[in-house]
Predict the structure.
Amino acid sequence: MLKTILRSLREYKKKAILTPILVAAEVVLEIIIPLFMARLIDFGISKGDMGYTLKLGGLLLLAAFGSLVLGSLAGMTAADASAGFAKNLRKDMFANVQSLSFSNIDRLSPSSIITRITTDTTYVQQAFQMSIRMAVRAPLTLIFALVAAFSINSQLALILLGTVPVMSLLLYLIVRKVYPLVDRVFKTYDKLNDNVSENLHGIRVVKTFVREDYENKKFGRISQKIFDDFSKAAKLLSLNSPIMQGCVYLSMLLISWFGAHLIVASGGDPAVGMSTGQLTSLFTYAMQILMSLMMLTMVFIMMTVSRASGDRIAELLNEKSDLVNGKNPVKEVKDGSIRFKNVDFSYSKDADKRTLCEINLDIKSGETVGIIGGTGSSKSTLVQLIPRLYDVTGGSVQVGGVDVRDYDLEALREQVSMVLQKNVLFSGTIKENLRWGNENATDEELVEACKMARAHEFIVQFSDGYDTYIEQGGTNVSGGQKQRLCIARALLKKPKVIIMDDSTSAVDTKTDAQIRKALNESIADTTKLIIAQRIASVMEADKIIVMDDGHISAVGNHDELMNKSDIYREVYESQMKGSLAND
């Protein structure tokens, strides 16, 4: 895990290495200060030697100032390194997400990805900053303080040394209990984000059905679960401070007792027994040991909290797309012909039932093909295999006579344009949204594509025309307008295959017919696949595919299907009943 996430340090590696060096130098000065104090008391103040007192006092000030400067520099370099590390982590995760396939994202889940890029990264950033400062400072202070204490009086130093394994064992037991709780909290965070995302996307449905109270209770249950687990973890961790302080203060009490006896017995002569200055230094080292152990505790706690986050981040960084190019990928699509050969597909390898079964289909380049079927008949799944958004489980899909798995992914998708069932517009102007289809498109090409999609008429009615700002998700345009803008965006790619997945469901039948007419006249050489719920949208297609429960039920033109397909005929009669009666 560490090896994976530390790759994101890159340009901040020097500062990350410099910080522990500065911290080590700071610790050395802090350990020297009590030794200077002991000599100042024993040989300066006690003996009334003003010259020696001033000399040692000057050294003390110099050491204290040096420690302050080194600590400040270490703080600045640690802050820069940790913030830069977090920035690179987020950038690397986001970049990797862009390369993943739909199946990868389905497996990880969007809410979990958001948690990893935001909350998890924040915890890892904090842990990293602690690790290059406190995780270096605490053990060095502990070791150096013990060494210095032994140099003063080995018998009393043993008291301090004896507290270390006791506190370490207690800390280990606390951390062992806390980690499972923290790990569970982060998994619950995923559910929390998923709940918020679902609620915001479906806010109109929630308000329409007056389900605000239900959603509040649902959110409250997840929040309560996070609260309960964090509370349990916090209660366990709260035991750490009193245990640590109790051990150290007990050791100081013992040092005071035995140290006082030594001072009295030796008459305060450091050469014979122990002096007041040395006892004062031991107290200082005892406090330094306490602080170092407290810092180690904080480091262990933060590491415990961030370990789960680090594992989740590493998992996302190590995730590789299920869809990769072959050794010598084909980079040119010859034409828009499409062939499905014995195609089977399921979204999960462990699925009991296949989503598509034994699909065999031939579509000629330039044909207009309608696809119709009931909800859940796998119409969208069928067309998503063409631009290789998913890989087939069995069989093959060919475009231009070449298996889609043999194409360069970017080259294939440049020539297979798709208007998805869920229309998405991004924040920005209409021009900026349209140029997602072709970033180099001229204004004339934008207008031409919009005229074909019947979007030009409503765009010019806006006060800013093509420079009109679209809010995130296209919330300031209607559903029909959004669909027509998405169709125009797809047309700008000038693809060899265009797939329209129920992309005119929000427009009226007249506009739908105008769009289809424009497409047939303007891009006659482009293969057009039209998924529709309205049978009027596919009646004039060269070929109509009737889907039923993952199978192709029938293929033919309108007249042929009226004679041989019960499903098609039933849909036709149910939808056209009103118009036939009026005729």
Residues 338-422+496-582 form a domain with the Rossmann fold fold (CATH 3.40.50.300). The first helix runs from residue 2 to 5. The first strand starts at residue 338 and ends at 345. The chain has two domains: 9-318, 338-422+496-582.
